[in-house]
Amino acid sequence: MALSSIPEQGCRAVADGRVLLARVDGEVVAYVNSCLHRGSAMDTGVVREGTLTCPAHLWRYRLTDGACLNGPGRLQPVPAAVVDGDVEVTPPAGDPDLATTLRERLLAHARAWERDL
Ligand code: FES
Fold first, then answer.
1. Which tens digits make up the pLDDT trace of 23-46?
2. Does 40 contact ligand 1 (Cβ within 6 A)?
3. Tell me, which fold does domain 3-92 have in CATH?
């Protein structure tokens, strides 16, 4: 994703929506796109003054370190680098949620659903 496509007051999802990208003080930060509250995706949340507000129930996170401002815990960081104006992310290899694509997860869900009939 081009660095310029990440708004100063917003964020973007990459890697099939599993990783959240935002800019803070000119730097790119990347976290697993899952709220600590109930796991909602947060890429449509509001970014303001260095914080991200989850769109589901308004929990807030400090973007510099992912710390939750509503309680303990912090977002899981994802390695990210800017190369020739593009942001490259490296999802953690050991995280099963990040190791599979959205397609793979939907197929697994569909297979489990068929077994339940
Ligand atoms: S899921 Fe994010 S605040 Fe509830």
1. 998 889 999 999 999 999 999 999
2. yes
3. Rieske Iron-sulfur Protein (2.102.10)
